[in-house]
Design a protein that fits this description.
With 326 residues, the protein is an alpha/beta fold. The chain has a single domain, classed as 3-Layer(aba) Sandwich (Rossmann fold). The chain has eleven helices and twelve strands. The protein has helices at residues 58-65, 88-95, 115-126, 131-144, 161-173, 191-208, 219-225, 243-248, 253-260, 267-272, 303-307, and strands at residues 6-21, 27-43, 47-51, 73-78, 81-82, 98-101, 179-183, 211-215, 228-233, 236-242, 313-316, 319-321. Helix 3 (115-126) crosses helix 4. The longest helix is centred in the middle third of the chain and has 18 residues, at 191-208. The protein is globular, with a radius of gyration of 21 Å. The protein starts with 5 loop residues before the first strand and ends in a 5-residue tail after the last strand.
């Protein structure tokens, strides 16, 4: 059995946002540790789910991978090339193969442009299609995401949230990418529309052989769409495993607490199970705890957790955890 091909390798990725003070002369007085020493791979054709609480660094990880934010340190290898070392024209050409679907379908579409102009803009910038060929490609993409080609001359304000997100998906597909970062693409939509958009993403993945990094905080939706799941907490990855392995056998105390909050559609099982209530609040990313990031809220923390940062290690085949107690 051949091992799957690695499309993206993230190696010790760090992104800190400087905090400065002063009007004329600005000096750095600290930094927001948004992403700290994150490593994982995404295989060709799979969906890696990235979950965690709001503000834990999920979206920053996605944007840093695409070089929308330049990393503070670390490497992002995409199709064998380190994006962190590319710039200018080289990076622009490579960006064609990576696209993003944004969280807010209202803010991510230019209200002054028609749908046809929005979807056609990537082709115009990268000079891939022109004239009638571009118009035909726009109509083809609209059909592909379940919208009428006649919508090309309309403006974003004429559409519902679900339709706008479909337009965002069509724009992401315009340059035939191999990797799409889905940054909470369904969190701003009604529950009834969420399933439609997720089913669309799955259909497109089968049809076009796409690879997804699916960022979300809806754990049941991530379970549905992902092949593997990475759990993030305060800028680090706490646990990474195959979807079923993670949901049935979570090893990190934070993952256990997260999954204990997911409702079960069985009233008897729901009544019997134990909820894990975490104490305190998430620490500030400006001044994260020493050692293990989770130790201030962890029910099984020991003295070593405050002194030594736990290694992100493979404790079982394909099951990675950053915890001294596992």
């Amino acid at each position: 059995m051949t091992s799957p091909e690695v499309l993206l390798r993230v190696d010790r990725l760090v992104k800190h946002f400087p905090i400065t003070r002063g009007i004329l002369i600005q000096r750095q007085i600290g930094a927001v540790h948004a992403v700290d020493d994150v490593s994982f791979v995404i295989y060709k054709g799979e969906t890696l789910g990235l979950v965690g609480e709001s503000g834990c660094g999920k979206s920053t990880t996605g944007r840093t991978i695409l070089q929308l934010y330049r990393p503070t340190s670390g490497s992002v290898f995409f199709e064998g090339r380190d994006l962190a070392k590319l710039s200018g024209e080289e990076l622009r050409k490579t960006r064609r193969r990576m696209q993003m679907i944004f969280q807010d379908p209202y803010a991510s579409l230019n209200p002054r442009m028609t749908v046809g102009e929005i979807i056609g803009e990537p082709m115009l910038i990268h000079n891939t299609y022109s004239g009638k060929a571009r118009q035909e490609r726009v109509e083809y993409l609209l059909k592909m995401v379940g919208l009428s080609p006649a919508f090309a001359n309309r403006y974003p304000h004429e559409f519902s949230g679900g339709q706008r997100q479909r337009i965002g998906v069509a724009r992401a597909l315009a340059l035939e990418p191999s990797l799409i970062v889905c940054d909470e693409p369904i969190s701003a939509l009604d529950v009834s529309i969420q399933a439609q958009v997720v089913n669309l993403l799955e259909d497109l993945q089968r049809e076009l052989g796409l690879t997804y990094l699916f960022i979300a905080h809806d754990l049941s939706m991530v379970r549905h769409i992902s092949n593997r799941v990475a759990v993030m907490y305060l800028g680090i990855i706490a646990e990474l495993a195959d979807r079923l392995e993670l949901y049935e056998n979570p090893l990190h105390p934070y993952t256990q607490a997260l999954l204990s909050a997911v409702p079960i559609p069985d009233p008897i099982a729901e009544e019997k199970r134990q909820r894990i209530i975490l104490q305190g609040d998430v620490p500030s990313p400006v001044n994260p705890p020493s050692g293990c990031r989770f130790r201030t809220r962890c029910p099984i923390a020991q003295a070593i957790c405050a002194e030594v940062k736990p290694e992100f290690r493979e404790v079982k085949p394909h099951h990675w955890v950053a915890c001294h107690m596992v």
